[in-house]
Design goal:
There is one protein chain. The protein is of the alpha+beta class. The protein has a single domain, classed as Aminopeptidase. It has 5 helices and 7 strands; from the N terminus they run E-H-H-H-E-E-E-H-E-H-E-E. A 7-stranded mixed beta sheet has the order 6-5-4-3-2-1-7, sandwiched between helices. The longest helix is centred in the middle third of the chain and has 15 residues. Bound molecules: coenzyme A.
Length: about 180
């Protein structure tokens, strides 16, 4: 018997202040492996609670992938004011049942455009150095994610001359179609 196929449209857009509870619920729903990869270690629900609040109150840019009222994926850009060069810390999360469907790539694209627009020269990603999905994402957009020996912070250097041809984004939300099998 053929599997039943449903089409659902998701949307990728910057999260609003009122989206904080949806962002928090998304991070709390990550399965344990994804949570570990996202935060580079074992962390508690209470930590996620505080982390989501801090992200929204300290001015991070958070792009979400939403289906209806639920945030199922997120890309974050936090400013590292402690570093001399304009540097952003970036992070990505897609819930397990939506992984490997191109959502991470869309989020990455959108976040890089924001980072360029804000004039960041470097982006840091904290994860383990064999995170293959993260490496594949960086490579796909012409960036190399490099780690020093034993380090958990990867660095992406942005081209100060701008965004490569063909990568300009239209303002406003992107519609995204997901096939459910
Ligand atoms: C990293 C993450 C956001 C990627 O999201 P995604 O929606 O699955 O990504 P995509 O479907 O757009 O795939 C992007 C690329 O990664 C590759 N990829 C995805 N998951 C992979 C995996 N588990 N192993 C190897 N490659 C993988 C895809 O094949 C694709 O490669 P391509 O560009 O060469 O085709 C998601 O896997 C995730 O949430 N992981 C847990 C949290 C995490 O590790 N965050 C990153 C550190 S902050």
């Amino acid at each position: 018997m053929q599997p039943e196929v449903h089409q659902n449209a998701g949307v990728i857009r910057q999260l609003r202040p009122s989206d904080l509870p949806r962002f928090r619920a998304h991070l709390l729903r990550l399965d344990s492996e994804s949570r570990h990869d996202r935060f580079n270690g074992a962390i508690s629900d209470a930590f996620i609670d505080r982390y989501a609040d801090r992200s929204f109150h300290e001015g991070a840019t958070v792009i979400g992938y939403l289906e209806g009222e639920q945030v199922l994926g997120a890309a974050e850009l936090h400013e590292r004011t402690d570093l001399p060069e304009p540097t952003g810390e970036i992070a990505f999360s897609v819930e397990r049942h939506r992984q490997r469907q191109g959502i991470g790539a869309k989020l990455f694209h959108r976040l890089l455009a924001h980072a360029h627009a804000l004039g960041y020269q470097r982006l840091h990603v904290t994860t383990h150095s064999d995170n293959r999905a993260m490496k594949a994402l960086a490579k796909r957009f012409g960036a190399e994610l490099s780690f020093g020996v034993g380090e958990t912070v990867g660095t992406i250097t942005l081209d100060p001359n701008g965004w490569p041809d063909g990568f300009l984004l239209e303002p406003g939300p992107d519609l995204f179609s997901v096939t459910h099998l």
